[in-house]
Write the structure tokens for this entry.
Amino acid sequence: EIVMTQSPATLSVSPGERATLSCRASQSIDDNLAWYQQKPGRPPSLLIYGASTRATEIPARFSGSGSGTDFTLTISSLQSEDSAVYYCQQYNNWPRTFGQGTKVEIK
Amino acid sequence: QVQLVQSGAEVMKPGASVKVSCKASGYKFVNFAMNWVRQAPGQRLEWMGSINAGNGYTKYSENFQGRVTIVRDTSATTVYMELSSLISGDTAVYYCARSKFYYDRNGWQSDAYDIWGQGTVVSVSS
């Protein structure tokens, strides 16, 4: 099973500042990585797939990068509505696995 | 519009089985896979299993030791997930989520999950 490790656990960022979230896979997953945003009481929603492709209607301030084992989600200019937990997921191997999440707080 | 609507909350006794449904609409059902993910309180998302809605082939997480069964009804455009021999640790929100599927040398594969159901709360308590 591929273990996905996210860091940091919590990120506190001021509005308008950049937020950088990391996700590491225990073995190579090529670019078969997705990022999801989850707000309290809501299901996750897809932000990024293929490591760097924004999903439909996702604002350009969200970007993804990386390949192999190390990946990054960047929110270029944090907005108040971006307060959420962000999860990475690999879909290169069965079983599909998720990271433990990074909580983004607005400072 | 594309949407997945799940069945309502369930309260179950230990040892029982629960069956959660996921009704798909707004897209061609057999062209996509359906995946089941659960989230226990304060925990990370956990993949349970997936079904290729085109041919009915399934993949399951070994973490559930054969307790999970996923089937689809193409005429009803609905996928069902049954979890048996429930324990208190199965208390969670259960989500269905759609993905594309494709084939490679290892068989069928699912892509990222682009549409999610609203979630079904399953509580297991004596």
